[in-house]
Amino acid sequence: MNQSTGALPEREMLLTILCELKRTSREYTTAVTESNCSAIRQTLTSLLNSTLESQAKVYGYMKQHNMYNASSPVLRQEVEKKFMQHQQAQQEQSQFVQSRLQGRQPYGAPFPNNGNTPSQHQAFMM
Q1: Residue ranges covered by each domain of the chain
Q2: Secondary structure in 3-state letters for 66-88
Q3: How far apart (Å, rounded) are the C-alpha atoms in residues 18 and 11?
Q4: For residues 7 and 12, what is the distance between their CA atoms, to the nearest angstrom?
Q5: Tens digits of per-residue pLDDT, 72-125?
C-alpha cells in the first residue's frame, strides 16, 4: 500500500479490477445459461458483453503500460490440436443430447464412444 495516501498502487488496483471483471463474467455466463426467461437472458447477455468489453479495455491498458505479462506463446499446432479435441467432444455431446431428445435411446443407455476409452476423453485445458 502507498503509505502517504493509503491507496493501492495503480497496477494493484487494476489487477483487482481485472480479477473482479473475470469473476463477474463467469457469474453472468452461468446466469445466462441457467436463465429460463428470454428477456432476462437477453439482459444478462448484454451485461456479459459489456463486462467482457471492460475486461478487454483494462487488460489492453495494463499490457500497453507493461503492468500485465501476457501468457507465453503457444505453438499453433498445440492450439489447433486442443481445438479439434474440444470440437469433437462438443459434437459428441450434441449428438448425445439430440439422441436423448428424439428418444432414440432409453435413459441410462450407454453413449457410443466410437471405440475410444474414457482416458482418451480429457478435459479441454490450456
Answers
A1: 10-64, 76-120
A2: CCCCCCCCCCHHHHHHHHHHHHH
A3: 10
A4: 10
A5: 777 888 888 998 999 999 999 988 888 888 876 555 556 555 555 444 444 444
